[in-house]
Amino acid sequence: MKSKFSQFLDGEIDVMSFFPEPAEERDLPRETVKEIRKEENRIIDADPATKKVVAFERRSFRFIYYIVAVISCIVFIGIMLYGVSFLPRYGQENAWATEVSRRYIENGLEETGAINIVSGMILDYRAFDTLGESHVLFTALVLVTILLRRDKKNQQSEVEDYYTVRSDRYFRTYKDVILSKVGSFLVPCILVYGVYVLLNGQLSPGGGFSGGAVMGAAMIIFAASSGFDKVDKFFSVKLSSWVTFAALGFYSFAKGYVFFTGANGIHNGIPKGTPGAILSGGLILPLDVAVGLVVACTMFGFYSLFRRGNIGGSGK
Amino acid sequence: MIGWIRFAITAVLIIAGLLFFISAVAGCWRFDFVMNRMHAAGIGDTAGLFFIVIALMVGSNAPMDILKLALLVVFMWFTSPTSSHMLAQIEYYTNPHLYSHVEREISEEAEDAEC
């Protein structure tokens, strides 16, 4: 006798069977639902007292609903404004709210080597947090792949796949001359801009997440304007997995090394560089690149999985 | 004196751009059919943005800012008409009641030729 959990693992038990069925009225045809409503209204209208009570209930519900909505909005706005009122004024001298931000502003440049204090914060002081965020993206990509990837196990029949492919060809937009020409002009510009944002993370606003998002958007535009056939030539599910794995592994090992040496008081030997140069900020630039690659792969993977059920050429 | 002339040009151009944006917003709210709304939104993204950016270029002093603003116009004029074009194409291919929205009489031969 197998336990229920191992039966669930083998796919013999549907978890949803433990929950009560939803109301059946939702599945009725619209005319039937209308007739039911009409019958209810007829019963209510028959008795003046019932009609009065029902009208009062509906009116008071609407009144209470509006009142509660307005009050909750005002309360949340008040909480936000109360929090904002603790912040220092813009351009104020000695502009720190707490001890931590004072430390960041005063010692951030010499301790991290990054001109952009935000970058120094998220990739040096709080690099562990950013590592978790990258892993959240990676986990989301893995789960979407499990749910949506169209392979032999996740497919009703050959016919379904045939219809999917055929409808994709029927509604394909990349035959459009205007779209493909505009795409071929825009995609390199956007990609170069994404790389610029990625590499300037320690110098200017931007960094891993925004640069990676721009690069992923460029790849999505390329796939939408030129078709997935062109994308398959340089991007596959294997490449995507290896890039994500290598980026996350490099991030974990590099930050693990820095945390280990820092906790034991050993000099880690990573050069900080001159602040303001492109190669400065110690580990911030490589970590930015790692985060950006993960974000770009995740964004394009989402689009590709939702659109056609696999990431790259080897999936079919 | 030259500063005042520049200010006046900037103000006039910004007001012109805002008029285009107002007409775009009004069109998006008032029209029902998707083609009309698309047209209205496209006006805001091209003409309105063009006049506002020209005004900012006249008012700006830094050459690098002027270059970036010009690039903004170039990219918006590439992307906004393209998205309008794709919207119109999808509407044309998927809306079976398209001709009921067209007020102009279309002869049957022309309809046959288009189909």
What's the oligomerization state?
Answer: heterodimer
Number of strands of chain B: 0
Helices and strands of chain A, in order, run as HHHHHHHHHHHH
- C-alpha-based Rg of chain A, rounded: 28 Å
Major sheet details of chain B:
none
Mean of all residue-level pLDDT scores of chain A: 83
Helix content of chain A: 55-70%
The Rg value of chain B, from CA coordinates, equals 19 Å
Mean pLDDT of chain B: 86
Q: Largest interface here, residues on each chain?
A: A-B, 9 and 8 residues
| Number of DSSP helical runs of chain B | 4
Element order, helices and strands of chain B? HHHH
Please provide the count of β strands of chain A. Answer: 0
Task: Explain how this protein is built.
The complex is a heterodimer of chains A (316) and B (115). Chain A is mainly α and 316 residues long. Chain A has helices at 4-9, 30-46, 48-84, 99-112, 117-125, 127-148, 158-170, 177-199, 208-226, 228-234, 237-263, 284-308. Chain B is mainly alpha-helical. In chain B, helix 1 (2-30) packs antiparallel against helix 2 (34-59) and helix 2 packs antiparallel against helix 3. Chain A binds chain B through residues 171, 173, 176, 178-179, 182, 185-186, 189, and chain B through 75, 78-79, 82, 85-86, 89, 93.
In short:
The complex is a heterodimer of chains A (316) and B (115). Chain A has helices at 4-9, 30-46, 48-84, 99-112, 117-125, 127-148, 158-170, 177-199, 208-226, 228-234, 237-263, 284-308.
